[in-house]
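Q: I have 355 residues here and want to know how they pack in 3D. Can you give me a structure?
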Amino acid sequence: MSDRLRIAVLGCGAIVKSQHLPALLAHSQVRLVALVDSDPNRAARLARQCGLKCGIETDYRAVLNQADAVINALPNHLHAPVTLEALSAGVHVLCEKPLATKSADARSCAVAAAEKGLVLAVGMNRRFQDNHQLLSLVLEQRLLGTLQNYDWQLGGPYDWDAASGFYFSKAQAGGGALIDYGVHLLDSLVDWFGPVTDFKYEDDDWGSGIEANARLTLKHDGRHGSIAGQVRISRTYNLANRLLVNGSAAVAELPLADPDSVLLHRELNGRPVTDTMRLGDGHKPSPRSFYLQLDNFVQSIKGVQKPCVGGEQAAAVLDLIERCYAQRTRIPEPWSELGVTSEAASWTGETKLSS
């Protein structure tokens, strides 16, 4: 391996254009050797827009002997099989989330990486946001007191500028809002609060498509004790877009709009106050999460670090998602059913409909 890590990017969709490619171009220890996409015009157009002089391929197999590592940003159903081929060829892999559409396939990837002595990292970029690390510090220092519960809401009308329609295919995506948005949230929650010991899951999949809205109630048992919480996800309407963690002494808030901060709400002398917590001096912008994710991957290959999220961790979250899908119940939709009371409409916490 040369001084600079040779990386090929598999897939030239929106996440590569907006996040992975800028991170690669900003990193001094990597060299982009190829862009791979089934549509050569899309790959060539991206290369021109960024002023790149790299290979353009339509078949990922053509670059496996040119690269030390790949970023697998193909559609979800190709994550596991292509990752396994890359690992078999002796190539390190940073795979976009989810690692697979099935937990068994994710574990196969983890086993293959271990057997080959290769790095397999999974693209959970939210782990590299300052607010994730800040909340970990808040919990370690017990600034919230005794943990009580949490409420995490993430949602808005779907507006991702996808290069293909795979997000809306159950066969290709593996599911809807839960496996797309929810995989990030569940990964973070398990990291903060420990394994899920009990859950209830509801969504609006009527059995022939994918869910656009989902609600989970979860219980955890981890190093900070037991805590229960609720997660709400939507691809159709705006939610509060923040995480609240309630404790006996304070409430921590992670606003989606500011991933570099944690707001700490508490009382001083009976008066409500809010502290804004940031890492460092608060004046210098922190590196973007995708750059930090890439750097963790590079340093893991060099043996300096370990992947923040590896195959086994990703498989454990996918296992929870599979159990949610297997035990799903329908979110009450009183507008589609006659004779349902207004209580059935209260799952958003905001809307009430009369029967």
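Q: Anything worth noting?
A: The first helix runs from residue 14 to 26. The chain has nine helices and 15 strands.
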